Amino acid sequence: MKNCRGATLIWLLFIVSLFLLLGSALITLAHSDWRVSGHLWAATQARYAAEAGIELALSVLGPNFLQLETEGWTYTRTEEPVFTVQAFRKDERSLSLKAVGSAGGITETMEVLAFWRPLGRQGLRGRKVTLKEVTVHGHVLCEQLTFSTGHSHIYGNLSARQIYGGGEEVFGHRCREGMPYRSVVNFMQLADQAQREGWQVVICEEEIYPVEKLPDVPLFVAGDAEICLGQVSTGVCIALGNIYIKEWTAGAHAVILAAGNIIFPHSGGIWTGSLIAYSGEKIIREGQLPLQISGALVAEELILEKTEIIYDDEAIFSALNYLPETLFTLQPGFDLEWLDVNPRR
Q1: Looking at CB atoms within 10 Å, which of 31, 158, 298, 316 has the fewest?
Q2: 285 - beta bridge partners?
Q3: 211: β partners
């Protein structure tokens, strides 16, 4: 009987020891998991902080890209989570960004190449826009938008305070808030600039001045102009009156600014190259033949029919020194190339 009680005590001690070992192992494992979770949480916070630094730099430097000095731009947030972001302008089109985020003793670094899009990939921008069977490869930003008969397609974001009609397809975000139209160019200041800087100035009050080739310096027409490009050229044409576009040469790069209307032809076709058009009044394109344009259109009012706009801002980069800054108030943005080795979320 005594031997049985002794064996029972030994087994009891063995079982208690086993449970103590298991409990100790579970506690150690839970503590290890807690430390790993804390490390991962801090690393995530640090990475979010670094990404917030990148986003802050992009929002600040988009409208101020041209004013960025050679020494660059730096911002530091001192509250937890902490981050520091630095930006350096590589050339007239791109920025190099580096952000370092810290949280819980963990540091994460992000490096980005940002390519400036001066018009923020906005294919159409205006106060009042009317579209009839129009396709836009880019964003549309306006105060009032009317979809007339037929189907229109927007391969980008649509931001408008008032939308009328129907039959549209939007392959991006819709925003009903919109933004006030502030893209107003002062043509009297451009006239003074033309005199100061020796632009090609033509005074043509009664007749329409024909433009067959864009000169190396901006062309300033004190009157109406008719664009009939007969050869590939790159440049700027500014008119105090209307601009009538009659003919386009494939591969041309032009920035066209008119204090009056800009009238596109009724004929169709595919216009390759890059065309940035600004009108102080209306941009009008009517016709039954489809017309494809690479570029962007900005005006107080746009009336477009059977037109396809493919966003392209290449023409702007050859004319940055001549263009008014009010053109670049259209929510300029960046295309990003992430350089960090580890994949983002």
Answers
A1: 31
A2: 304
A3: 227
pLDDT, tens digit, 9 for 90 and up, residues 178-233: 666 777 899 999 999 999 999 999 998 778 999 999 999 999 999 999 999 988 99
Helices (H) and strands (E) in the chain, counts: 3, 21
DSSP label of 66: G
Spatial contact of 41 and 102, defined as CB atoms under 8 Å apart: no
CA distance 241 to 328: 22
Give the distance between the most distant pair of CA atoms in the chain. Answer: 130
Most confident of 25-34, 191-200, 322-331: 191-200
298: which 2 tokens?
């900005």
The structure's pTM equals 0.82
Residue 343 pLDDT exceeds 50: no
Which residue do the tokens 């009157």 mark? 223
Q: Tokens for 88, please give them.
A: 């350096």
What's the residue count for the chain? 345
Radius of gyration of the chain (CA): 30
Joined tokens for residue 13: 């001690």
At position 293, the amino acid (one-letter code) is I
Contact 179, 141 (CB under 8 A): yes
The residue written with tokens 């009050």 in the block is: 205
Query: What single-letter DSSP state applies at residue 341?
Result: S
Which of 159, 128, 173 has the alpha carbon at shortest distance from 331? 159
Detail the DSSP E strand segments found in 197-240: 200-211, 219-228, 234-239
| Nearest of 267, 190, 286 to residue 236 by alpha carbon | 190
Q: Concatenated DSSP letters for 54-97?
A: HHHHHHHHSTTGGG--TT-EEEEE-SSSEEEEEEEE-SSSEEEE
> What is the C-alpha to C-alpha distance for residues 206 and 279, in angstroms, rounded to an integer?
20
Q: Which of 50, 151, 169, 55 is nearest to 110 (CA)?
A: 50
Tell me the HSE value of 235 on the side-chain side, using a 13 A CA sphere: 19
